[in-house]
Amino acid sequence: MNASTQAAVGSGSWQSAVAVGSGHCYCRLLLPTAVILVLIVSGSVAQEKKEAAKEEALLANDRLLPTDPRDKVHPSQRYKLYKFKMVAGATYTIDMIRHGNFDPYLRLEDSKGKELARDDDSGGNLNARITFKAPATDTYRIFATTLSEAQGDYTLRVWPMGVTLEPGSVRMEGRRQEVEDIVIMPDDMAIMNFSGGGNEGGHGYEEYRFNILNQSATESHRVTLTIPQGNMPIPRTGHFLRSIKRTVEVGPKSSVSLTLFQPDLPLAYNSASAEVAIDGRVKRDGIGVSLARDRGVHNYGRTPASPEILRKILTTEDGNVLGNNAFKSVVGKPAVVGGYSRFGSVSGDYRGLRYVYSRQDRFFSSATAMPSWNKDWLSYSGYEGMVLASDKFQAAPPEVQAAIRQYVENGGSLVLIGDASVPKSWGEAKDLGNGLTAYYLGFGQCLLTAEKDINKWEPEQWFPITQMWAQSAQPWNQVLSPTDANRRFPIVENLRIPVRGMFIVMLLFAFLIGPLNIRILTRKKRRIWLLWTVPSISLVACLALAGYMFFSEGWTGQVRSEGLTILDENVQRANSVGWLGIYSPITPGDGMHMSYDTELTPHLRQDPSYYRRTGTPRTIDWTDDQHLDSGWVTARIPAHFLVRTGQKRLERVLVQKETDGSLTMVNALEVKIGKFWLADTEGRIYTAADVAGGAKAALKRTNDKAKGAPDALRQAYAKDWLGLVDALTTRPEDFLRPNCYIALVDNSPFLEEGLRNAGVRKGRGVVYGIRKLP
């Protein structure tokens, strides 16, 4: 190789080296630049998705009118158009729920006018539903129309499936109240607003839910909603609710969901509106809402021996869990059409056996997806049962699952269809045969079946299910009139008007104001003084009469309660049912206060003679607690309630094994235990008596053995609640199971009293404890 060649090679090597070196240099510069660009692009994409997600749901309460445009597919029908942006790959549920006598119909088009879907009755009960997976991000066109000539009110709801929405991401249109910065819209698709109402009876609480949006970027507002709107003194027969209200604080650029509950009493007025007050200023126009009418009707003139009330069963939002439109009509099986059971009785032969099924059940498919179900068990308290697909229940938010569990613990019924993984805290499983497995939670029952096809269920499977629903409905037949309730559960012994004392005071008053007063003033020639002596003597007489009454009864109220509490130490929950009675010599100015976890059913079954009289108005404020404000407790008139409640509680009874092998117990229930029975791991029963709160006592073994069935408490729940204390303490062995105990206590700490500053508290309670094993 010559010098020139070497020089050329050397030159090329140097250039290559420079090229390689500069390449590394470029890589060092381009790599972070590329990363930055990727982050910027992904950030912009994420921001774009975030911007697109700002309006991921639509809720519209609206009305079809004769002036609306005509639909091109059904030219004889009117429609309203909604434009909604959907994200590619996301699945949306579009519902049109009727509030009138018409047949909703939905059509879906893309932005270019191409029809993509249509539906008539998939929502059950003639309601329309479209489930749609968006092929592309686009602003789609939703046509809300009908198949009939009639028009009316409806709710349109577009909701992304499996998405947790951020506050303020629900677009509200149609019938709403918009004042200054506040937008208020009723969620007519809340679960309980479709529980039926009417004259079909029922129990529990009715739910009203509102969505409130504060559009201000800087100011908070206090919003008060009152149902119903109006303060006109319209007379109403029987007992009724004058108003239900709640106040919430809504921060800047945020939204809240406000819930009101209506007990089993009718509303005062026929108004279909809620009153709105913002920052204390009542607005002239209310907001339209679908109200449950004629609640409490099943209590009028009905005795405990009457036929059972209509049982209401809640299902999931798609309705498919119950076969959607119809069950297979087989003798002995319920026939369901559009989510409703047929009524009447059917009997016939099946495999050589005779079956009779009385169809008193009515099914309601929830118009709300389970992720949006309420987290308060009171929303479900009006249902005798729930029928849910296991996968939907397990996919529901933990708060919703907890509310449903609390509903079951307080006496509800749950049917899970499909394979389900049940927590150990649900208790011991019981095989009922025919593919059914039962769990008993508190006072309720849960049935599991792996057979997903309802049409394949046989009468042997339907019988325990319908029997379970009947047990959940049975306690509400014990609602009595005020007079009968006080006769069964007197709060004050010998409650009567002090006729003798009042007669003596009135006789003395008549003598003083008449003959004696006139005789004295005549002798003194001061008869003109009658102008002040007569009022003075009258005042003294009134004070004496009031003083006599307060001396005989006192100033403070009296409370009496009696019931049963299941205290499960494994999950630290106490579920109670029982009776509550309140008596006050003067009307309490603060009314009654209960927690958000308590359901109250007043003993206000009215006989026909009383029903014709003017009723008593009552009010409830749900702002800070369940405040039964006015009308519930009046002077010298006893008030009685059925009570169901579930609470998180830490009280317990500690059982210890001493070195000599004997058993002792420590009372950590914070109240004195009058009698105590314990069943050990082997079912042997031990007893103790008169154990003060915090005290320790030795347990004495008996010859009895626990023989309580898993459903013993469930069976007791379906009977008279006033007999529970005597039933469990007379024969405790019939209810005790291994590792459980029964404690008889006075003034149970688990039953709320309601009346603050009560002077006298009395009552009995039974605590059924389920011990936590090591």
Keywords, please?
single chain; 774 residues; alpha+beta; Jelly Rolls; Immunoglobulin-like; 6 domains; 9-stranded mixed β-sheet; 8-stranded mixed β-sheet; 10 helices; 44 strands; disordered N terminus
What does this structure look like?
This protein is α+β, with helices and mostly antiparallel strands. It has six domains: 3-54; 56-173, Sandwich (Jelly Rolls); 176-299, Sandwich (Immunoglobulin-like), CATH 2.60.40; 300-306 and 319-478, no CATH class; 499-553; 555-588 and 633-774, no CATH class. The chain has ten helices and 44 strands. Strand 28 (436-439) and strand 29 form a beta hairpin. The longest helix has 50 residues, at 3-52.
Give a quick summary of the entry.
The chain is an alpha+beta fold. It has ten helices and 44 strands.
